[in-house]
Amino acid sequence: MGPLIPNGIITGDWNFVIAILLGIAFGFILEASGFSSSRNIVGVFYGYNFVVLRVFFTALIVTMVGLLYFDYFGWLNMSQIFILPTFWQPMLVGGVIMGLGFIMGGFCPGTSFTAIAIGKIDGLLFTIGLYLGIGMFSLAFPLFGDFYNSGNLGNVTVSDITGISSSWLALTFTIVALAAFWVTMLIEKKVRKRITEYKF
Amino acid sequence: MNRNYIILTLIMLILAIGTIFISQRQFTKQVPPEELLWDVLQPTRFVSTDLVAKRIIEKDPSQLLIDVRSASQFESFSLPGAINVPFDSLKTSAAMAYFGNPGTKVVLFSNDGILADEAWILLRRLAYKNNYVMKGGLNGWIQTIIRPLAPAETSSEKVIEQYNFRRAASMYFIGSKTDVNKSQKAKITFVKRKKSVVAAGGC
Amino acid sequence: MHVHDLNPKKTLWAVIIFLILIVVGFLTMRSPLMTYEENIAQSIQTVRDTSSYYFYPYELTDVLNHQNKDVVLIDIRNKYEFGQGHIPGAKSIPSFDLAKKNNLEMLKNFQRDRVKVVLYANDQLDATGAWFFFRQVGFKNTYILLGGYDFYAKHASDLKATKKDQNLFLKGISRYNYAEVAKSSTGSVDNQNTSTKPVVFKRRKKATVAAGGC
Description:
The complex is a heterotrimer.
Chain A: H1 14-32, H2 38-46, H3 51-73, E1 86-87, H4 88-105, H5 109-117, H6 121-139, H7 141-148, E2 152-154, H8 158-162, H9 166-194
Helix pairs in contact in A: 1-5, 3-9, 5-6
Chain B: H1 2-22, H2 33-41, E1 46-47, H3 49-57, E2 63-67, H4 71-76, E3 83-84, H5 93-96, E4 105-109, H6 114-125, E5 131-134, H7 137-146, H8 157-174, H9 177-183
Helix pairs in contact in B: 3-8
Chain C: H1 8-28, H2 40-48, E1 54-55, H3 60-64, E2 71-75, H4 79-84, E3 91-92, H5 101-112, E4 116-120, H6 124-136, E5 142-145, H7 148-155, H8 178-181, H9 187-195
Parallel strand pairs in C: 1-5, 2-3, 2-4, 4-5
């Protein structure tokens, strides 16, 4: 939990409490955004519903810009934020696999659990498959362990690699996201005209 | 409906543009002035010439001597194993590679210790740690290590012991040629800072 | 209206909360007591330009005779040392009190009135840190007394005469011909070798703290 534990404001024991609270909030937002319906989620790929893109892009740009402001106000120390290490090749392959699973299954790992929470059988089956997959991956890990750990760039951010300041990146990303909102809205309108039966 | 979207888009855009004006300071991370003043007033950054001499003789690999005088002064004389980073070059990134490496104690020195102290302050401002200043500089080096003054016979045991060490060190530094050459072999290796691997989560 | 379309009321609240947070941030931002007025390159230049901050001991005579009223001497040693002896007319501000608000106010007033502020301690080195710090935060009127109090105490009676022999108090010069003193040392030859060693560029790693995920 960011700056609070390393600075000794709260002890490490709070990690789990905070994790549970954040998890509940995350699940709530996913459900409130309608992500427990796989039709909503895969709508991105068929072009009739871009709510996934909108929710995640909104969260992204608000956080991005908000963190920059918080850092400026002195509420938060950006240099103490944890950054996941980047393994570029495995991440690229992993992204493709996840995307394929996304289209086929109709859920991403997080949303499958919210689907279970509202009693959906497809979500339940997806989760069983998820755990089977985790088990298979673990058993077969020695086969691709080397690849899994290759291409490590360390705990870097985009601005670390490119040298562009994070505020310019945030602005660029915001513009891209906002443009995407408008474009997808037009696509949605066009596609929905052709769909006769449209129900969630 | 559409009006709401337009307003939201505009708000987000304005906020994003605003970040460009606020976060200038992200380019160079500097220690806040109050903290710098506090550190500047602490005498803990000074190390004695005796300690530096001892570490050179012991070939302590963790000590990195940095001469902040000009290149021409450095050419004519410097401490064994020292690296020249002129004070003027402290703004270049090439010079910065020597500082802030884990496991390395950087000892700055100049003629009197004043320029070295000023270099220390600039480095501290740029948030570099583990730097030290050799008190007395090269003048102090000559006075204490190369030409130590014999203490009075009534001096305490500690003073006499220190004098004996300095005599020996003096022999070491201006003694035979081969002896000095050996001390050059203390290799400086930069250890890559280990990343602390912690449990990472994903969605 | 479709259930997943924008809900104007909820969105409005979310936006208002976000904006209020940012406004509160701007309002409650602590304005720092001091900010850096010089960048690193400028500070390096400051140190190079010794005439802009050296205050020579022989200049003290005018101050002590009250002929030069545009100079304020500040003793940054502790109160005890100040009590043991100080330059007449000097103000005592122990170094750890320098960052106090009223002292900073005072320094600001001196700067406004174009008064030279001369810092001194026992030794020039002891005052260097404080002097260099104040220069970096923008007090361009800060000077440093060469030789410090020790030199003054020794030469209080003949300050004028010290003008002839500046080597007595000047710092930063080499007092020995080092190469001569350490004749059999092979320092310079070997040092050339080490100095040509390629510099390894290394990005400093971010301090990693407890992990998070999405």
